[in-house]
Amino acid sequence: MHCPFCRHPDSRVVDSRTSEDGTAIRRRRQCPKCGRRFTTLEATSLAVIKRSGTSEPFSRQKVVSGVRKACQGRPVSEDDLAKMAQRVEEAVRGLGVAEIDADEIGLTILPPLRELDEVAYLRFASVYQGFDSLEDFETAIAGLRADRRMRGEDSDSPGAGG
């Protein structure tokens, strides 16, 4: 790290702290040449490779806006969407990659969205899993029903999400 004051090519770390949200590290540094102190902020970057081949930084807000469309008319709050987007980001960062395809993010959204709202899940899945026919929807619905039976939930009970 170059000193911003004298441009010396080295510096010594005096103190390190993690940011409140845990996504960055704040470091106090001291230049061995001029003795002045300065602060650096180190953050990991995660790039999303879009279908067009272009790259852009990962954005929780883009996750929220994409899922919001699937949740229209459903009992899903903005807070629910924000929590889901955080789960998606944690899952993607947990893969330990610096770049990820946009389609992979779409697929990573599916499990937490399924827990949040099954109708929104079906809407979103129809796009990201490329449903081509009614049979694709029927298969997805059958999977949801099978999961409910395994959890011991009655699919005809009130509040069962369908």
Automatic annotation (TrEMBL):
In the UniProt record, does the keyword Magnesium occur? no
Q: Where are the zinc fingers (unnamed)?
A: 3-34
- Report the residue ranges that make up the ATP-cone domain in this protein: 46-136
Check the record and name the InterPro entries matching this protein. Answer: ATP-cone_dom (IPR005144), NrdR-like_N (IPR055173), RNR_NrdR-like (IPR003796)
Q: Which PANTHER family match?
A: TRANSCRIPTIONAL REPRESSOR NRDR (PTHR30455)
Return the NCBIfam families for the record: transcriptional regulator NrdR
Name by which UniProt lists this protein = Transcriptional repressor NrdR
| Species this protein is from | Spelaeicoccus albus
